[in-house]
Design goal:
By secondary structure, the protein is of the alpha+beta class. The protein contains 16 helices and 16 strands. One of its GO terms (cellular component) is cytoplasm.
Length: about 450
């Protein structure tokens, strides 16, 4: 029989380009950060479940008016930080903040008809031009919680305690700053008084605050310029413009904070720049040795937000955080993050037939709530056993071609070193004996 002529394989011509650089202001999350993301997101998820919050999510694209109306059309955030574009003659934006978006969804789907309180939590990417947040990142991961339908400060305290205790458990040193923004009437009167004060100090404050005295006097209270910080101490305080009910809400909130032993301090100059906040507001900071405390989470009353977006009158409060900022603080404090839990079982396989059976058997093991690892890209037994040892598996199961045919599996108890052949139908029971023997 003539030999078949050897034919060279054609060479694939792959069109190459230079690796596109990361867009300025964007950041990749790498495997080295996995333990920080996993620990924080797991903690925030557990809190949501423990406190009976329901998950919601919103699209990455919203109408421009959603943010212009709720945050403030003339605010720096809306004018400079939204990523906007026109689609079919309609102005759109990429999601820049979950809080208005979640309330828009709350109204759109008539969730206000659900049983009070309505407790929602959310999380995902927000995208901006990178000017507003200190990190200068254009994409960040926001997580937070809403409570709708409760006027009582007990709802606010619950939100604060949830995150305060989470931060303590993560090894941080949190405390809470508290203030009140009052209601619509009181805030208008306060803004007039503050504008008058700023104008009376024109020569003693920074140029930017002088220019914004009429348009946005609250910017003055957040100014970090040394000229302004000296003058802020003597500025009018909004607590003097609160109504009786607003005073009562703030006082009861502080009383409850004392009862739950959450460390806090009043900060009469604290303002949340987004226009949808009113009444009692709060921010959680991490205390640092150099006194340059770091903001971890922001929240407060959003009692008007539903009505602002065409929904029913609905008292509400919220709190949210930026995951990257919290992780950065955890890293800077060199907080010890626990390693991922070791697998209960490592399943090794030694042939193509065994590999196919192992793929099925992995799912059978996972249904029994075992943490199972198998690497189907490896064929050599030694490399698989080395991996199992490094990962700290308690049981190693080895499935070869002979075992597949016989309906058996080789089981090794790593701690005792005992190894035996077990009927594959009985191996789950045998694994349980080893895992739960202590």
């Amino acid at each position: 029989m003539p030999r078949r002529k050897k034919v060279d394989e054609p060479t694939e011509q792959i069109k190459k380009i230079k690796t596109p650089p990361l867009i300025k202001g964007m950041k990749d999350v790498l495997p080295s950060d996995n333990k920080y993301w996993r620990t924080l997101l797991d903690s925030l998820t557990r809190v949501a479940i423990d406190f009976n919050f329901q998950w919601v999510d919103t699209p990455l694209m919203e109408k421009y008016d959603l943010y212009a109306h709720t945050i403030g059309k003339n605010s720096d955030f809306v004018k400079k930080d939204l990523i906007s574009f026109t689609d079919k003659n309609e102005k759109m934006v990429l999601r820049a903040d979950y809080i208005p978006a979640v309330t828009r969804s709350f109204i759109s789907h008539s969730l206000y008809n659900n049983t009070i309180p309505i407790k929602l939590w959310f999380g995902g990417s927000i995208l901006t031009q990178g000017n507003f947040y200190e990190s200068k990142h254009r994409q960040m991961y926001q997580m937070g919680y809403h409570v709708y339908g409760v006027e009582s400060p007990a709802a606010d305290v619950e939100l604060v305690v949830m995150l305060y205790q989470t931060f303590v458990a993560l090894g941080l040193n949190p405390y809470v700053r508290v203030n009140s923004l009052g209601g619509l009437t009181g805030r208008i009167e306060y803004a007039k008084a503050l504008t008058g004060y700023i104008k009376s100090k024109r020569s003693a404050i920074c140029t930017e605050c002088r220019g914004q005295a009429t348009r946005d006097p609250f910017k003055f209270l957040a100014c970090a310029n040394q000229k302004c910080t000296k003058q802020i101490e003597d500025a009018p305080q909004i607590v003097d413009y609160l109504s009786e009910s607003e005073h009562s809400h703030l006082f009861k909130f502080l009383e409850a904070m004392d009862e739950v032993k959450v460390e806090y301090e009043m900060d009469n100059s604290m303002v949340h720049e987004f226009g949808y906040y009113n009444g009692t507001i709060y921010s959680i900071y991490n205390r640092t040795e150099d006194g340059d405390d770091v903001l971890l989470a922001t929240g407060g009353r959003i009692n008007y937000l539903s009505e602002m977006l065409g929904g029913p009158e609905m008292p509400a409060c919220t709190i949210s955080l930026l995951v990257e900022k919290v992780i950065s603080e955890i890293k800077s404090k060199k907080v010890e993050i626990p390693r991922m839990k070791s697998p209960h079982v490592y399943l090794a396989q030694l042939s193509e037939q065994a590999k196919r059976r192992a793929m099925e058997f992995v799912e059978e093991l996972r249904k029994e709530d075992f943490r199972v690892v198998a690497n189907f890209s490896k064929d050599g037994l030694k490399s698989q056993l080395d991996t199992a040892t490094k990962m700290g598996a308690k049981v190693i199961l080895i499935l070869g071609q002979k075992e597949t045919i016989d309906g058996t599996i080789l089981m090794r108890d790593v701690e005792s070193g005992i190894q035996e052949v077990v009927n594959i139908k009985k191996v789950i029971g045998e694994v349980k004996k080893i895992i739960y023997k202590k």
